[in-house]
Design brief:
Layout: E1 7-12, E2 29-30, E3 33-34, H1 35-45, E4 50-54, H2 61-65, H3 67-70, E5 73-76, H4 85-93, E6 100-105, H5 113-123, E7 128-132, E8 138-146, H6 147-155, H7 162-166, E9 172-175, H8 192-204, E10 205-206, E11 209-210, H9 211-225, H10 234-247, H11 252-265, H12 270-287
Parallel strand pairs: 1-4, 1-6, 4-5, 7-9
Antiparallel strand pairs: 2-3, 6-8, 7-8, 10-11
Helix pairs in contact: 10-11, 10-12, 11-12
């Protein structure tokens, strides 16, 4: 299976963001995390150990994703910079040695490691897989490909459209609908309206929980038991709870997050420990079917 073989991720982060007046789109923060950091984090949580970001270097990336995640990320640029997704893909692919590669946009604030693991599994029986949105539209920048097939397609492709490149390659179309109350995984941020929508989701929902309620509850619990609320990263905790519930069993969610708390109390890193547990949950259905 693709999920069991070496997988890299290419994150396209060098676009010109014309519909956002040339803003540094990957650096825009939604819910306290930059768009590119959210995508890099989702890729690592899916089990990827090598991420190529095609775009300007971001010296502050480690401040957002942590040193452990940053160690798996390298940057490159297409020629010329801002030349479009196909040249960017070629540049990123030049640094990939893994058998499979995820191709991701850098503006997907609600992407999750669990969705990417589903995508990798769907690709295993052919040359690739593409996530489709709730209207059935393929999201080419949310796809997984066999590296050799992708290189062969690029060698003979003269065009500039990702659709023109990918559509002829045999692939699976994967629909992973967001559960009720959760933002769509495929929501990208191309326009001011997209950013406003993403901001509303981030302000009011994390993992299906209303943020106004959750934030107040976290503050009250921290005050009650004497914990600094700044150490609570609810997005990491809820992502782990969702992975445990979906991949293992619903009762595994609260138990797993409780064990995470014990580990963090003993001095382990919240983010890296949660990533390890999410990776363990991802292998559980295969090893304990």
């Amino acid at each position: 299976m693709a999920a069991e073989q070496p997988v890299a991720a290419i994150v396209l982060a060098g676009g010109q963001a014309r519909r956002l007046d040339g803003a540094d789109k990957p650096g825009i923060k939604i819910g306290g995390l930059s768009l590119v950091s959210a995508v890099v984090t989702a890729a690592i949580r899916s089990g990827v150990t090598h991420v190529v970001v095609v775009g300007p270097d971001r010296p502050d990336l480690a401040d957002e994703v942590g040193e452990a995640v940053r160690a798996h990320v390298e940057f490159t640029r297409e020629e010329p910079p801002g030349g479009g997704p196909v040249p960017a893909l070629r540049a990123g692919l030049g640094l990939v040695t893994e058998r499979w590669v995820l191709l991701l946009a850098a503006d997907l604030p609600f992407l999750s490691g669990a969705v990417l693991r589903h995508l990798r599994s769907a690709a295993a029986s052919g040359a690739g897989a593409v996530l489709v949105d709730d209207a059935g539209r393929p999201q080419w920048l949310l796809s997984c490909w066999r590296t050799a097939e992708l290189r062969a397609a690029l060698q003979s492709y003269p065009g500039t459209s990702l659709r023109g490149l990918f559509a002829p390659i045999p692939h699976a179309d994967l629909a992973v609908l967001a559960p009720p109350g959760e933002p769509p995984y495929w929501l990208d941020c191309d326009t001011p309206e997209d950013l406003a929508t993403a901001g509303q989701w981030a302000r009011h929902h994390v993992g299906g929980v209303a943020m106004t309620v959750l934030t107040d509850w976290i503050a009250a619990v921290c005050a009650e038991i004497g914990i600094d609320p700044s150490v609570v990263d609810e997005r990491v905790i809820l992502d782990l709870a969702r992975d445990a519930a979906h991949q293992v069993d619903r009762p595994a969610a609260p138990v797993t997050t409780f064990l995470l708390g014990i580990a963090v109390g003993g001095g382990q890193s919240l983010t890296s420990t949660a990533d390890r547990l999410s990776a363990l949950a991802a292998t559980w259905p295969n090893t304990h079917s």
